Automatic annotation (TrEMBL), chain A:
UniProtKB keywords: Cytoplasm, Exosome, Nucleus, Phosphoprotein, RNA-binding, rRNA processing
Cellular compartment(s): Cytoplasm; Nucleus, Nucleolus
K Homology domain mapped to chain residues: 169-207
Domain (Exosome complex component N-terminal): residue spans on this chain: 26-63
Lineage of the species this protein comes from: Eukaryota, Metazoa, Chordata, Craniata, Vertebrata
Record-given protein name: Exosome complex component RRP4
UniProt record similarity statement: Belongs to the RRP4 family.
Recorded GO CC terms: cytoplasmic exosome (RNase complex); nuclear exosome (RNase complex); nucleolus
Domain of life: Eukaryota
UniProtKB/TrEMBL annotation, chain B:
Span of domain Exoribonuclease phosphorolytic: 21-152, 155-220
SUPFAM superfamilies per the UniProt record, alphabetical: Ribonuclease PH domain 2-like (SSF55666), Ribosomal protein S5 domain 2-like (SSF54211)
UniProt name for this protein: Exosome complex component RRP41
One Pfam family of this chain: RNase_PH_C
GO cellular component, one term: nucleoplasm
Lineage: Eukaryota, Metazoa, Chordata, Craniata, Vertebrata
Compartment annotation: Cytoplasm; Nucleus, Nucleolus; Nucleus, Nucleoplasm
Subunit text: Component of the RNA exosome core complex (Exo-9), composed of EXOSC1, EXOSC2, EXOSC3, EXOSC4, EXOSC5, EXOSC6, EXOSC7, EXOSC8 and EXOSC9; within the complex interacts with EXOSC2, EXOSC7 and EXOSC9. The catalytically inactive RNA exosome core complex (Exo-9) associates with the catalytic subunit EXOSC10/RRP6. Exo-9 may associate with DIS3 to form the nucleolar exosome complex, or DIS3L to form the cytoplasmic exosome complex.
Domain of life: Eukaryota
GO terms (BP aspect): nuclear mRNA surveillance; poly(A)-dependent snoRNA 3'-end processing; rRNA catabolic process; rRNA processing; U4 snRNA 3'-end processing
Annotated source species: Microcaecilia unicolor
Length: 293, 245
């Protein structure tokens, strides 16, 4: 078996032709945004001596009288209605703790999951004792944000057949700011795999299920071996996602699909090489620009 | 001072710098994909790497959690190959523990911790090559890493060491100058508001000279700030262009 060994190469500076220099207001911590007191203080800012100062490095956003600074990269800040993918870290009294790349672990209450046996089932003490049979530490779930607590922790729910435990597939973690907010975050891509783009930057790629097994409430996993072609599509998608995220491109169904198509001439393992990455991302950008046109 | 002339009659130091001249600083943000924030800095031959995780749920014992602000957890370590003589323990010895404590104090003053109650921010710094001013390189690297992680801070924290040799303050000491054993002062400054985050001095210095040395140190910190600011702005500009919404 041939092994390719490479030396680390210096990254290139943000390139060139397709990217027009945009005129945005960029600030760094400690910069004065305004000395006018008529503004409201938003995220990423603080007041000192009647001045509004930035506390993170990023772009200034103004909505009427509200001034915020959006950092380029942060932990996930949840909003009600977001779709997230998370990992169970702990089973507690009537609740699960879920790691969602947020600043505190999220909670999933036993009362906000659909248990096997339909929606109207009562939750008994036996359910409380059997919590670990439904979800145990290390399991991945998809869920929706139900509420945000005052300290920033999230409360999740899975009361829909769309959500629940995730079976076989691949998880890719990217920065939450790279996931574009869309109407739907569940996609059955035409290339033969499905994808869940969690708003928290956790992306789940899995083989498209043939039919939905509705009764189980999402707690029974399909453990049939996944066919080789499906696995190849999933690996290719994963490498495409890595390429897009290293080049800081927004992730949504179209960009992922274009990137996938651009990657087809290359072998899957070659997609991790920096020059191939650059090439396919460039092609994707080009197509997206043309399409917007 | 046995034969070693730290400051020549013409006003030049051993490595050819003037008394108030810094070493060359090169820095880069976002060197790791896995961490929330990371940065690498070179100040002359001193090289430091900083990695930031968080804010995240408290790891370890829950009792450490503070209900009104975040816990700042630091770790300072020196790579075993960083010094002339190979080190046996990269961290956990007395010197490192002291440095860890200093870093913690410095960044608790600068980070707006009250925005993240009951969470934890981890700052790990490692010296890859030690050539004087280790604390300062660590502070500067950690500042960049925190900014890369998008954690809100009052201001930059810039640090610089200053010595006092032959009635002249020398800024940004290298290893040879540090080893000569004169008084040495490390200053971490919030440059915009001119607030001092940490001030540390070893050995004695006459009161009359203190102001002179402190002035030189704060001037040097502002010089460091100018360099770091350039790095941050270039980085933000680049990423913004790539994101290009």
């Amino acid at each position: 078996m041939a092994v390719e060994v490479r030396l680390p190469a210096a990254r290139k500076r943000g390139s060139e032709v397709l990217l027009p220099e945009t005129n945005r207001h960029l600030v760094a911590p400690g910069d004065t945004i305004t000395t006018d007191t008529g503004f409201m203080r938003g995220h990423g800012t603080y007041m000192e001596d009647e001045k509004l100062l930035a506390s993170v490095a990023g772009t200034v956003e103004r909505v009427n009288k509200l001034i915020c600074v959006r950092a380029l990269k942060t932990r996930y800040n949840g909003e009600v209605g977001d779709i997230v993918v998370g990992r169970i870290t702990e089973v507690q009294q009537r609740r699960w703790k879920v790691e969602t790349n947020s600043r505190l672990d999220s909670v999933l209450l036993l009362s906000s999951v659909n248990l096997p046996g339909g929606e109207l089932r009562r939750r008994s003490v036996e359910d409380e004792l059997a919590m670990r049979d439904y979800l145990q530490e290390g399991d991945l779930i998809s869920a929706e944000v139900q509420a945000v607590f005052s300290d920033g922790a999230l409360s999740l729910h899975t009361r829909s057949l769309k959500y629940g435990k995730l079976g076989q597939g691949v998880l890719v973690q990217v920065s939450p700011s790279l996931v574009k907010r869309r109407k739907t975050h569940f996609h059955n891509l035409p290339c033969g795999a499905s994808i869940i783009l969690g708003n928290n930057g956790f992306i789940w790629i899995f083989p498209t299920p043939e039919q939905r097994e509705e009764e189980a409430g999402g707690f029974i996993m399909n453990l049939e071996p996944v066919s080789l072609p499906d696995r190849e599509v999933i690996s290719r998608l994963r490498n495409c996602l890595l390429a897009l995220s290293t080049h800081k491109m927004m992730l949504y169904d179209t960009s992922i699909l274009y990137c996938y198509e651009a990657s087809l001439p290359h072998q899957i393992k070659d997609l991790l090489k920096s020059e191939v990455m650059e090439e396919i991302v460039m092609e994707t950008r080009q197509r997206l620009v043309e399409q917007e046109g | 001072m046995a034969g070693l002339e730290l400051l020549s009659d013409q006003g030049y130091r051993l490595d050819g710098r003037k008394a108030v001249e810094l070493r060359k600083i090169q820095a880069r943000m976002g060197v790791f994909a896995q961490a929330d924030g990371s940065a690498y800095i070179e100040q002359g031959n001193t090289k430091a790497l900083a990695v930031v995780y968080g804010p995240h749920e408290i790891r370890g014992s829950r009792s450490k959690a503070l209900h009104d602000r975040a816990v700042v957890n630091c770790q300072y370590s020196m790579a075993t190959f960083s010094t002339g003589e190979r080190k046996r323990r990269p961290h956990g010895d007395r010197k490192s523990s002291e440095m860890t404590l200093h870093l913690k104090q410095t960044f608790e003053a600068a980070i707006l911790t009250q925005l993240y109650p009951r969470s934890q921010i981890d700052i790990y710094v490692q010296i890859l090559q030690a050539d004087g001013g280790n604390y300062c390189a660590c502070v500067n690297a950690a500042t960049l890493a925190i900014m890369d992680a998008g954690i809100p801070m009052r201001d930059y924290v810039c640090a610089c060491s200053t010595g006092f040799i032959e009635d002249t303050p020398l800024v940004d000491l290298c290893y040879v100058e540090e080893a000569a054993g004169g008084p040495q002062l490390a200053l971490a400054l919030l440059p915009k508001s001119e607030q001092i985050a940490l001030l540390e001095m070893n050995s004695r210095l006459h009161e009359d000279h203190l102001e002179k040395v402190l002035d030189a140190a704060s001037k040097a910190c502002r010089d460091v700030y100018a360099v770091l600011d350039r790095v941050v702005r270039d980085h933000v500009q680049e990423v913004c262009t790539l994101l290009g919404e």
